[in-house]
Structures are given as C-alpha cells and as structure tokens.
Target: Glycerol operon regulatory protein
Amino acid sequence: MVSETGGNQSVERASAVLNAFTLGRPSLRVSDVAAQVGLGISTTSRLLATLESVDLVRRDPVSQLYELGPAVLTMAGIALNNDPIYRQSRPVAQRLAWELGLGANVSVRRGAELFYLLNVEGQLAQKSFSLMGQRNPLHATGMGKCLLLGVAAAQRAELLGPEPLHSFTSHTLTTFEALDADLAASTERGYAKEVEELALGRACVAAPVRDHTGEVVAAISVSGALSAIALEEREAELGRMIVEAADTVSIGLGYLGPVHTPVQEAK
Model:
C-alpha cells in the first residue's frame, strides 16, 4: 500500500509534469520535461508513460514529442461548464463578438493576474488560438483594472508589488498614483479602458461583473486592433454596450444593484 506521503509526492510530480507544457512550449521531449520539473530521465519517462495511459498526455507518433492529451480537454470542459460565471457570460460574450466583430473576453482574478475564462472572436479579431486559461497582468489590461476595483486601495501595493510596476509598452501605467487615478476614472464612467498598455496596436473596453453580494468577481471586455475598435469614435457606444453586458451577467449571478440605506430624519 502506497503511503500517504508517497501518494502526495506522486500527485505533486504528476502535476509538475502537466504544468511543464505551456503555450510557448506545448510539445516536449522527455529530457525537456525532466529539466523543467527537476527529475531524472527515468522517473520522468515513467510518469509520462503513466499519464499517457490515462490520456492526460499523448505522444506524437512521428516526432515522439509529448503534448497534453484529450483527457485534459474533457476535464477543462467539465470545470468550465460547472462555473456559474462562465455559464452566465458565454451567451453575452458571443452576442458582443457577433454584433461588434471584436474579441469578447471574460476573466476572473487569480492572485496578481487575470485568468481568462472565456474568449470569443468576432470577424474583425480572429485568432488561430484561444485565450482561455491564459493569464495577463492586472495593471496593464482593461479587465485587470476592473478586477482591481474589487481590491482595496491599501491592498493593491501588496498585491502588485513595489513600483515601478512592470512596463510592457511606453503607455503602461507603472505607478500607483497613475493607476489609482485611472481606476477612479473607471469608477466614474462605469467602465475601464486600455490603449496599447499591454501590446502596441491594441485596445479594449471592459466593465466589472458583480455577484449577489455586490463584490466584483469577474470582468468582461471587447478588444481588438486599434483600427477595428476605433475607440476615438466609438468609446461612448462601446462603453454603453460593455456596461450593459456586465449588468446582464451580474443580474444572472444574483446582483440586484447597490443597496441604498434610507436617510433617517433627525428627531
């Protein structure tokens, strides 16, 4: 009988092997995986063989390189379909992408990063890959700024780290003073925007999604190339549409709007 410690170690090693496969390196040799997870070649080879037997990885018959297997897709589908934010936002994002031709995205916060739950591409923003499961920084994205609205100002420095914040382009906000001012403006107008702060030539408009408690639990956005999103001419229209989309998802999650406490008359 395998000990509890040994069983835990096996699970941790298997998890490390699966996490060795990334968007940048989706296909790996045994030696690549071994170097990534810090295990010997023979141990790594046995782990990969076990994972292959349950379809968590597969080996290309020509190149003999390993990649993630179909069982991962099955589990990802189950997890997504069991997620209430995904279920509520999927038809909303699909409608936005269809009507605007832009990319429509939904994300949640995972620590100091945003995590894509959903990515639908319109005809003006087609990609050959999905963003689902990928991560991006909070301070340099429209959705990330919306998710930061759910974090107290005093906690943002602890969450994001010391200044200067990481710069991706010359437009990235790298100080908390600039970020706080941007978040205040986002709160005022009801949506956040990002123009070439993460990548040159791209922009997005995003709005926060709230649950039944009123907490910000997700963000939804439309994004695309500067020429496609035409933010200078369409910001008011896109802002209205993304706020309406966020409200639709929020209502589906049980959000009823802010609670107003009646002012009591002085006696």
